[in-house]
């Protein structure tokens, strides 16, 4: 279900930008999805196609995966999250609850499980193109 809420948020944000930039027609919208924020791309695409207003009629939606960067709170080491290092069950748990990541992922330098997600969390609007 949350793909629909995401699609609504994306379109609302894109509309705001379109208004600010005085775009009459939107041609292209690029959305970035953080790796830890697993989203069913097909459902998101379908939701976008159903919810898009008239000014988005010919808009192409690009959905790109964003790398997740983690940063250790203890030693400050930053590293990229790699899903392939986790077993399937763990990946599945993270899929549903990103917070679960703390139970499975440890700093590769000092072994601390106390880290923050520095980049690549959530879903955001990367780019929008249109005509005035
Ligand atoms: Zn560390």
Main sheet record = 3 strands, mixed
The small molecules bound here are: zinc ion
- The side-by-side strand order for the widest beta sheet comes to 2-1-6
Topology as a string of helices (H) and strands (E): HEHEEEHHEE
- Amino- and carboxy-terminal Cα gap: 34 Å
General shape:
elongated
SS summary, helix count: 4
Class per helix and strand makeup: alpha+beta
Mean pLDDT: 85
Tally of DSSP β-strands: 6
- Could you list the spans in which at least 5 consecutive residues all have pLDDT below 50? none
Radius of gyration: 17 Å
Q: Give helix % range.
A: 25-40%
**Strand composition percent:** 25-35%
Task: Describe this structure as you would to a colleague.
The chain is of the alpha+beta class and 132 residues long. 33% of the residues lie in helices and 29% in strands. The protein contains four helices and six strands. Strands 2-1-6 form a three-stranded mixed β-sheet, covered by helices on one side. The chain has a three-stranded antiparallel β-sheet with strand order 4-3-5, with no helix packed on it. Helix 1 (2-20) crosses helix 2 (41-51). The chain is elongated, with a radius of gyration of 17 Å. The model has no long low-confidence stretch (mean pLDDT 85). The site of zinc ion (ZN) has 8 residues, from loops.
């Amino acid at each position: 279900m949350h793909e629909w809420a995401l699609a609504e948020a994306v379109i609302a944000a894109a509309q705001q930008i379109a208004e600010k930039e005085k775009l009459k027609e939107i041609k292209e919208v690029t959305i970035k999805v953080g790796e830890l924020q697993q989203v069913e791309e097909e459902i998101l695409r379908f939701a976008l196609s159903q919810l898009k207003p008239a000014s988005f009629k010919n808009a192409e939606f690009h959905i790109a995966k964003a790398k997740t960067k983690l940063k250790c709170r203890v030693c400050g080491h930053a590293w990229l999250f790699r899903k392939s290092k986790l077993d399937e069950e763990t990946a599945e748990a993270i899929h549903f609850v990103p917070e679960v990541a703390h139970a499975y992922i440890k700093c590769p330098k000092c072994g601390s499980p106390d880290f923050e997600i520095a980049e690549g969390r959530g879903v955001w609007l990367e780019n929008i193109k249109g005509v005035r």
